[in-house]
Amino acid sequence: xxxxxxxxxxxxxxxxxxxxxxxxxxxxxxxxxxxxxxxxxxxxxxxxxxxxxxxxxxxxxxxxxxxxxxxxxxxxxxxxxxxxxxxxxxxxxxxxxxxxxxxxxxxxxxxxxxxxxxxxxxxxxxxxxxxxxxxxxxxxxxxxxxxxxxxxxxxxxxxxxxxxxxxxxxxxxxxxxxxxxxxxxxxxxxxxxxxxxxxxxxxxxxxxxxxxxxxxxxxxxxxxxxxxxxxxxxxxxxxxxxxxxxxxxxxxxxxxxxxxxxxxxxxxxxxxxxxxxxxxxxxxxxxxxxxxxxxxxxxxxxxxxxxxxxxxxxxxxxxxxxxxxxxxxxxxxxxxxxxxxxxxxxxxxxxxxxxxxxxxxxxxxxxxxxxxxxxxxxxxxxxxxxxxxxxxxxxxxxxxxxxxxxxxxxxxxxxxxxxxxxxxxxxxxxxxxxxxxxxxxxxxxxxxxxxxxxxxxxxxxxxxxxxxxxxxxxxxxxxxxxxxxxxxxxxxxxxxxxxxxxxxxxxxxxxxxxxxxxxxxxxxxxxxxxxxxxxxxxxxxxxxxxxxxxxxxxxxxxxxxxxxxxxxxxxxxxxxxxxxxxxxxxxxxxxxxxxxxxxxxxxxxxxxxxxxxxxxxxxxxxxxxxxxxxxxxxxxxxxxxxxxxxxxxxxxx
Length: 653
Description:
mainly alpha
């Protein structure tokens, strides 16, 4: 039977070398046992009775026949083994006890069906990687931080997908990093999407999570949605009994302040006081942000907040000063008069006046002003007033005693060139210069910053440039102060200076700013060319501006054309007006409503001028008569061409 199995295995090739060696060894053992059995039978034949001789001989003959068959089969097996690639006999004997080895087997590849392919793909993708190749949670967080710092927020979010592919679970810290990054950009929708994913993962939102969500509302452009989200968040705090800290209140004040809800912001500050939470300088800074949104009364609120800060002995920082200056630049006092803020109740029968002195510095002293304080220009009147004054310091309790410090040589000449007094009624809250005067003026303001150990930055000097009087000496003083403090002025500062001088028609000094730009090795941007367009008063200057823009690689836009067009229409420069109209056509620039209004107004005024008999001498001049005729001939067709250009652009879109 074993021989039959061996022959079958050899013929079909369904046995490997080790199995073959095992079967061959077993066959040889069977042969040896057969021989021993035959010999034992022959030896026993001589000890039996004669009556059994026949049976014994027959048995011997039968055994011999079997041995011959086994021998011939073994010979055949040996031939097959010798002809095939098998191990030697000695190897068979040594490895006869090996169970099996499939390392050399070659299987026939069978094409898998669709179900098997899906199963194989699932195993390849969902198989858990080795633990040594999976990053740690801290490593995932570092990857998210790296993408956020480079500004690639989509790549940062993709790290969460990588965490899931690695069969790991994101933690709350990863989600907080992403929510904070989108909150800085004011992307409320994405922040709340990540927040909902975080809750679905079974992660509990932490305090930074709620703070980031409210920061997103503060930076969001839609006021209605932002306030609705914050209201929902406050209701959530009540339902879940979330313990609120000063950080939560600060960010809520920030949201309400930025979106114009100043009353709610002050209510939250009162709530902080009732809960005995720390009201720090950050809280007051967020309140100052809210005052800037109130253009009519914001400056009054800023003064109140500043005095509150002083009463609590809090030290202001650079953000406090910058916000205060922005409030002075952009906001007014509201319905209150300046006398309501500055005048003591005991001085109702006296007409108060104000000067650039410490006494009117609301950053240092409470809002009480003295009597008959002159504006001074030099130090001689200062000595006379000091001799007649018994006190050397002004206190709120005694407003009659006034001390005049050294004069502010920067701002004072812009107000008065003599020692005349300035009535308080002359200071209007609509004027940024007047608001700076109430803060003590330029000199006292920077002195107070030095006392508070606050270093100004580029935002500070930019606001000061807008607040100081529109005189060259005041503007130079701001530049000198910035240089002395080591502040590097940027191109935006000089653009503002050009714009300020152009608005007061000081075109010569406005163009001189270009020398300062070149001296500081700054490169003009498109805004620079826009403010320089305000200085163009002739076709030659406009041509020079166009050439400069082309050399610097800037393209003419509709805003710059509008600025030059305004100058040209005011000076009846028909040739420049027609040139600008052609440039809009050739450059495919669609005019905005301001361009059309300017040209329509120009056409109407020109027609009135032509009919005016008193201006006949002017309108009869060749440059005016020819220019007016060409403009009337071209204007109607140009309007139609611009409309066709806008229609074709809409069709392409």
